[in-house]
Write a structure and sequence with these properties.
By secondary structure, the chain is an alpha/beta fold. Helices cover 35% and strands 19% of the residues. The protein has helices spanning 3-23, 40-52, 79-86, 103-109, 132-138; strands at residues 31-34, 55-59, 72-74, 92-97, 111-119, 141-144.
């Protein structure tokens, strides 16, 4: 492992671990959808989710993920329908959204009743707008994760002014 990769290793795996297990509550046997699997945090998340014993669905826009990366590798187009097809129309228990943008709407549609969406970044460069009606109707939870050691959560100012 070169120095640059080694330097990013703790950040990537810590972010993925906190997002999936601490904030997302991922349990063995649950279905998780992970975006951004070709990036450092996404790759770590795929490995952690598999190690936990979850059913892992990776979203791959680039077409470069190998089939070994997840139980299923899907393109973003028609994602919600594909996830529902793979889960007997139930949907995913957890989604880890590292991409944001237009994909988030599709990810919300892919969630099961009482599903959880964890967001920890916007690799697309676009911060998604979310309909609270979708949150209410699906009885879903949207959870943010920030693992920056520079500002502990207890002293972090809220963007809402609280």
């Amino acid at each position: 492992m070169d120095d640059l990769t080694a330097a990013g290793f703790p950040v990537s795996y810590a972010t993925a671990h906190v997002s999936l297990l601490h904030r997302g509550g991922l349990q063995p046997g649950e279905t998780v959808v992970i975006t951004g699997g070709t990036g450092n945090v996404g790759e770590a998340a795929l490995q952690i989710a598999q190690a936990v014993g979850a059913r892992v669905i990776a979203v791959d826009r680039s077409g470069t993920l190998t089939p070994a990366a997840a139980d299923h590798v899907l393109p973003p187009e028609g994602l919600a329908d594909a996830v529902r097809s793979l889960t007997g129309q139930r949907g995913a228990d957890l989604v880890l959204d590292l991409v944001g943008g237009d994909l988030t709407r599709e990810l919300i549609a892919a969630l099961a009743w009482e599903g959880r969406l964890v967001t920890t970044g916007f690799a697309s460069g676009a911060i998604p707008a979310v309909s609270l009606l979708d949150v209410l109707v699906g009885n879903i939870a949207i959870i943010g994760t920030r693992t920056s050691p520079a500002m502990p959560a207890a002293t972090s100012p809220s963007p809402c002014g609280r």
